[in-house]
Amino acid sequence: TSDVLAGFGTTIFEVMSKLAIEHQAINLGQGFPDEDGPADIRHLAAKSVEEGPNQYPPMMGVPELRQAVADHDRRFYGLNVDWQTDVLVTSGATESLAACMLGLINPGDEVVLFEPLYDCYLPMIKLAGGIPKFVRLDPPNWEIDEEKLRAAFSDKTKLILMNSPMNPTGKVFTREELELIAELSIKHDTYAICDEVYEHIVFGQKEHLSLMTLPGMRERTARIASAGKTFSLTGWKVGYLTAAADLTARIAKAHQFLTFTTAPNLQRAVAYGLAKDDAFYNDLKSSMEAKRDRFRNGLQRIGFTTADCDGTYFINADISSIGFDGTDEEFCRLITTEAGVAAVPCSAFYQSEGARTNFARFCFSKRDEVLDAAIEKLQDFF
Ligand code: PMP
Ligand code: GLN
């Protein structure tokens, strides 16, 4: 193992999913929906596999999908995107993230990150030789401490990597917060990589704002999204990135040596999906919001207090609120093996020394009867 990777264990998603399978627990750990996305998108992909072509598509992505991403970004964010130069298709958002880190970071460059952070961020930064500067957010409100964020930036900062709506917190960054990030990115002349895979899963009055739309940010921001979340097709691993032409070219330089391309048939089907009408996007939002409410109400009936959740399909429950005094890792193992419900400890998403939480993350993108069964099992156990 390389020295960098020797510092990391097996990803928490794999660990908890394996434990869930062993104990036949309802898996609310790893984040994925239990129903596949739209049948018409899947049929189109199947037809495209049958009819072909099935050979390498262009390195930047099939033209239909790059056009659809440009149209999507204009439709939802008013962005003016040239599909030929400003869009890159990758194998999931994960590969976009890797290509950004490997394509932009030099050894010794600093990277500003919010904790808790999605699990692939830190290893990717370290593999690229970057030095993480963490800004910690805490439950239950996940508020940004402005002074800490200011202090994290320096003349060595190459980029800020952020995620809104944010996994695992369910936080949706406000305009004021994004303005602060923009101010600091501009002042220190950094890039901003914004992971927006949950862009269409935002609840209530909250609105997802794309960092790229703020003044001065169009040239320095890369916006990353994924068909996995928007179409509940996580296994397809079709992601897409929007950035200014010169920034896209730098990122594509890494992408060409990582995967080079992504299955063309899936790309064509996703292109069709992105053009779906407002009813589709509204329904995604309202059905996930109803699931959040259903599951949160269930947790509260058991006696858990929950952290704020304005987006994504994750909610964090305070394990101390029902009198559990062990760690969140112990809690998640216990409920997986004894109650038959798997969750992921929120502490697994904190990397800086000593950072811990009393929170367990539950994924609620499941059928109602599965959510109800999970609540029943937890209720019986506690
Ligand atoms: N970023 C975040 C915040 C995620 O939650 C996920 C997936 N769960 C990804 C990136 C990876 O997306 P993909 O599966 O498209 O690689
Ligand atoms: N993004 C998913 C989660 O947060 C998991 C993806 C994965 O297993 N790598 O649970």
From TrEMBL:
It holds the Pfam family Aminotran_1_2. Residues 25-378 form the Aminotransferase class I/classII large domain. Transmembrane segments: none annotated. Keywords: Aminotransferase, Pyridoxal phosphate, Transferase. Its cofactor is pyridoxal 5'-phosphate. InterPro entries: Aminotransferase_I/II_large, Kynurenine-oxoglutarate_AT, PyrdxlP-dep_Trfase, PyrdxlP-dep_Trfase_major, PyrdxlP-dep_Trfase_small. One of its GO terms (cellular component) is cytoplasm. The keyword Metal-binding does not apply. The keyword Transferase applies. SUPFAM superfamilies: PLP-dependent transferases. CDD domains: AAT_like. GO terms for molecular function: kynurenine-oxoglutarate transaminase activity; pyridoxal phosphate binding. NCBIfam families: PRK08912.1, PRK09082.1. Belongs to the class-I pyridoxal-phosphate-dependent aminotransferase family. This is Aminotransferase. The lineage of its organism: Bacteria, Pseudomonadati, Pseudomonadota, Alphaproteobacteria, Sneathiellales.
